[in-house]
Inverse folding.
């Protein structure tokens, strides 16, 4: 329970762990990331139920995505914007990392934020009930599970200290596959070996490619790119499932 509380405090706005965590504790909490995703997803599914009962339509989908952002304190969106500013700057590796460290948001960061927000709202609008409940339950778990791939398998890109270095060299390579298996099992329970499970597999494959591209560009990953990959994975999962409904 200690590691779950630590993961909840780190990834959400709920301050259920108030102590200073060591690298070992941070690394151990990685196994709980998909569980935090399911917690967030459950809250979002409740919001979707309220949307359905109140017949809010598109306004309800916007509200769900806003609640999604509020529950995480915008942590991963901040990483998405910083990563977009750096990765799409066209500069060399060192300059990209400097741009990402700048607290100011550039044009590419703003575009990335708007694109992800609109994509999530649009594809949520395609989901019928009860599929929407399952998609909202799984998307945050998939995003937080995909964060474990660069944490465990890629070097930290910055030479100095940073939020992403808090895990040190203690992150287990088992965390990512176990997270994917857990999320995949939940997807299988949702619709069997069909839309959700297939969508999760495609999303994971795309995430692997994107993680590799980012690492090639930056020489590794940072705390910002972990968050960016989380947001990207959530969006892609909604996109893949939404397109799958119309194939």
């Amino acid at each position: 329970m200690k590691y779950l509380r630590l993961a909840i405090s780190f990834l959400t706005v709920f301050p259920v762990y108030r102590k200073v965590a060591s690298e070992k504790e941070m690394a151990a909490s990685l196994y709980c990331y998909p569980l935090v995703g399911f917690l967030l997803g459950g809250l979002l599914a409740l919001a979707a139920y309220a949307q359905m009962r109140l017949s809010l339509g598109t306004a309800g989908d916007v509200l769900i995505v806003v609640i999604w952002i509020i529950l995480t304190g915008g942590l991963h969106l901040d990483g998405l914007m910083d990563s977009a500013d750096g990765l799409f700057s066209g500069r060399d590796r060192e300059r990209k990392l400097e741009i990402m460290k700048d607290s100011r948001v550039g044009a590419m960061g703003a575009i990335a934020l708007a694109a992800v927000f609109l994509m999530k709202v649009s594809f949520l609008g395609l989901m019928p009930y009860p599929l929407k409940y399952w998609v909202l339950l799984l998307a945050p778990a998939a995003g937080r599970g995909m964060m474990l791939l660069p944490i465990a398998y890629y070097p930290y890109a910055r030479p100095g200290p940073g939020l992403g270095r808090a895990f040190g060299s203690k992150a287990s390579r088992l965390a990512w596959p176990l997270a994917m298996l857990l999320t995949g099992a939940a997807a299988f329970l949702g619709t069997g070996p069909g839309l959700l499970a297939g969508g999760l597999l495609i999303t994971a494959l795309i995430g692997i490619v994107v993680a590799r591209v980012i690492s090639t560009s930056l020489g590794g990953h940072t705390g910002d790119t972990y968050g960016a990959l989380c947001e990207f994975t959530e969006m892609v999962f909604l996109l893949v499932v939404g397109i799958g409904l119309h194939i």
